[in-house]
Design a protein that fits this description.
Layout: H1 2-31, H2 53-68, E1 74-79, E2 82-87, H3 90-97, H4 113-116, H5 125-135, H6 141-144, H7 148-168, H8 175-191, H9 204-221, H10 228-234, H11 237-264, H12 268-277
Antiparallel strand pairs: 1-2
Helix pairs in contact: 7-8, 9-11
Cofactor: heme
Keywords: Endoplasmic reticulum, Heme, Iron, Membrane, Metal-binding, Monooxygenase, Oxidoreductase
Protein name: Cytochrome P450 monooxygenase
Length: 284
């Protein structure tokens, strides 16, 4: 009886191994039709990946120049056994972003959940569809027009910074500069809080944003930290919790301030009426 159980378990294991191997081989054959850098067995391109986010994005840009321009603006890389298709062209990426079938994210996205929760970005298709229907009216043109002064003000600050960069005559990576402008616009539009990221050198919120960005990136490129318990014990789990606490405290304070403003105005209906009477379209 014992031999039979062992035999059945071994047979099942062998069958699963063969099935996984065939499936992986098929995926490998398809992915490797896409041009990309040479790989090592099991490791893939992990040994070539730069561990700093800014340097990594420069590396991705290099892939675009090496493989993308002549091959449909797409390249491939292997993150260990995980294949990555890197798309550089807007026309090429449009079918992917516009697809209603490709809604399930790679598990790497789950590393963001401690920060942003199970929202529109991370939710599974059964949650994503109804939530998207609820949020779509928020991005209506008439509502977005209310935020044009916000866009213009922060855009003007960006232009002023870019003018100084242009006058210097130096080669400068503007990715960080654009990121700060985007952060200013999102925080004031969504939360009603002007963090003035473009003019502020340091703040707890800004430092936490960039720190958690680096923590998540490091976790993505270091598979040994994929398991949550290993990340918490040997990785930057404690630092991530500290950053998340700062970010959530900031968001919660902003939400409570907006609720208080609505209550003092007599409720959302009266606040909307007041804004309309003042010449606005509604509440930002």
């Amino acid at each position: 009886m014992g031999f039979l159980v062992v035999f059945l378990i071994a047979s099942l294991f062998a069958w699963l191994s063969a099935w996984i191997s065939r499936k992986f081989l098929r995926i490998s054959q398809l992915v490797n039709r896409i041009p990309g850098p040479s790989t090592l067995p099991l490791v893939g391109n992990l040994h070539q990946i730069r561990l700093k986010p800014d340097e990594f994005f420069e590396q991705v840009q290099g892939l675009a120049y090496m493989f993308g321009e002549k091959n449909g603006r797409i390249a491939r890389a292997w993150l260990g056994p995980i294949p990555l298709a890197i798309i550089f062209g807007a026309e090429e990426v449009e079918p992917v972003l516009g697809s209603k079938k490709l809604l399930t994210k790679m598990f790497h996205y789950s590393f963001l959940s401690a920060w942003i929760g199970d929202g529109l970005l991370l939710s599974k298709p059964d949650k994503w569809r109804p939530r998207r229907k609820l949020l779509t009216p928020t991005f209506h043109y008439d509502i977005l027009k209310d935020f044009v002064p916000v866009y213009n003000r922060h855009g003007t600050t960006l232009v002023q910074k870019m003018e100084k960069i242009a006058e210097s005559g130096e080669f400068v990576d503007i990715f960080h500069t654009i990121t700060l402008c985007t952060l200013d616009i999102i925080c004031e539009s969504a939360l009603g809080v002007n963090i003035d990221a473009q003019r502020t050198i340091h703040s707890d919120y800004l430092d936490a944003v960039f720190a958690i960005k680096n923590i998540i990136f490091q976790r993505i490129v270091k598979p040994q930290f994929y398991p949550e318990f290993l990340f918490n014990i040997f990785g930057a789990g404690k630092e991530q919790k500290r950053c998340v606490q700062i970010l959530h405290d900031f968001t919660n304070k902003a939400i409570l301030a907006r609720k208080k403003a609505m209550e003092e105005a007599g409720g959302i209906e009266k606040l909307v009426a007041k804004k309309v009477a003042e010449g606005g379209k509604g509440v930002r």
